[in-house]
Design brief:
The chain is of the alpha+beta class. It has helices spanning 5-16, 24-39, 69-78, 129-166, 218-236, 242-254, 341-349, 359-369; strands at 42-47, 57-60, 83-84, 103-110, 113-121, 177-184, 195-201, 207-214, 262-270, 275-281, 287-289, 295-297, 302-303, 316-319, 325-329, 379-386. The strands form three sheets. Strands 7, 8, 9, 10, 13 and 14 form a six-stranded mixed sheet that branches. Helix 5 (218-236) packs across helix 6 (242-254).
Amino acid sequence: MAAPAAVLAALRPVASGVGTTLDEAATCAELTRAVAAQTGATAAVVRADGPAEPEYEAAVGDPATLPEVRWVAAVARDLTAPAIDKESEQRTGRPEPGRDRGALCVPLATGDDRYGVLVCARDGGPFTAFETELLALLAERAASHLRHAREHARVSRTAGDLQRALRAEPGRPHPNLDIAVRYLPAGQQTLVGGDWCETVRLHFGRTLLVVGDVMGHGVEAAVDMAAYRSDLRALAAADLPPHRVLRQLDTLADALPDRRPATCLIARVDPVRGMMTMAGAGHLPPAVIDRYGITSLLRVPVGPPLGTGFGGYEPATHELDPDRTLVMFTDGLVERRGEDIDRSLERLAALRFPATAELDEILDSMLGRLDARRAEDDVAVLAARPRLALPH
């Protein structure tokens, strides 16, 4: 006989409290808490793919009331319906000898997918037919969420593998230039997005430094980011000045309608001359930290973002010697919701650093003081400093 409407209404919130996340351990814990609350029994889970030696997980109540876990594991191998370890028509498997209380085993299964068994035991008498049906319902709901959790984990692993493949470390600069790089993806679930840094060796001891930011996040932005990096490396081989590299990148991206727009900042550093030439495409200006640890922003003409087809990039030349540290970054480092970008840049320019700070110390301090680890956008930062020339 079907349960009265009032009973079904009372059970709905119980069932809805099982499987609220995509975490397997959390789902098992929600299941056993719900079972214990509804039956007054001790509840636990034995997972089919758990440790080599079976063990109870997510136990709620007194574990001493549960049957020996090896008996449960033996029952779980062939279990297709609820089983009780005392004489019963529903019993499958051999009961644990010497027990004076019943234990109900319910398969954690949905369709052909089997994840283990829910185990319940209590001193207050056998489980009723209604309780058995209720636990079977909750176990099936939990199994459905376990399936979703595993599918989500599988897809996440695949996406992670792709993202790691797309995220390449910057190349090595010439030995006359020290660099440090930091990358922070937006959010907890993303490994890489559209922000990137690159270094390319050029002739005569020069190094090309690049920071870029493709519109958007996640795998799609990372794919376009990889394409921009590939194009940049090919163009760098021609040893073009930064503004002409940007012009070529813009032309290539504009010819591909599916390529996302991107901002980009390029610096060609020449430590021998103590100079660098820069050009930007819709990107924020770089910062320079002087010998006293004072931060200031450099003036760089800003052209349109890459992929617009407008061109119009111009170079700017600045000094860069061993007493100065160049910091190039994407907007995630400084931008904050509801804050004017000029104010954001002022916060960066207000930072001060020890005169003897190493590049890694500078970047770690900068990320911490600007609270970049909680930014809503990807963050990529590159710091560079020429090395002192060794005496001959």
